[in-house]
Amino acid sequence: MNTLPATSADDGLLITAGGYEDLRVELESLQGGVGRELSERLRNARQDGHLADNPPLFDLLEEQAQLDRRIAVLEAQLAAAQIAAPTTEGRAGIGSRVRVRDLEVGKTVEYELVGAIEPKVGNGRVSIAAPVGRALVGQRVGARIDVETPGGTLPLEILSVLPANAQRLARKAA
Hints:
Layout: E1 3-5, E2 14-15, H1 17-47, H2 55-80, E3 82-85, E4 97-102, E5 108-114, E6 125-127, H3 131-136, E7 144-149, E8 152-162, H4 164-173
Parallel strand pairs: 1-3, 2-3, 5-6
Antiparallel strand pairs: 4-5, 4-8, 7-8
């Protein structure tokens, strides 16, 4: 896994260090406890006999196939993921916390920009592949941008850009 600048919205393989860790923990969970528990349930269902007409066994086999697919996806994502280096020149990038004002309604919102493959998007976390995230990447404080969203144009002004490392330090100090 390499570290790349966090300002490229075109690279779907960029991810925050926290997002990488979340994916790694999910993979370990699926390969460990969840996978072992499912294997045990499958073994018990097979021991019940009547393999030709055993709906619980078929359900468990489908569940196993879904688990195997998710593990394969996670392994591929982790192998290809590149942790984005925190931006230091005042530009928004992956891992940055960006506070913006909606110029139409005056509402202020804060977004954490994350990679396109990151889990837990929402609640203030915006993928750089989403319209708002894509528009914010590379912007500086004071910039005014018009974001084309499915709901229409969203005029925003960037109020602050806090690098990923600075937000962690601020949380520890509080």
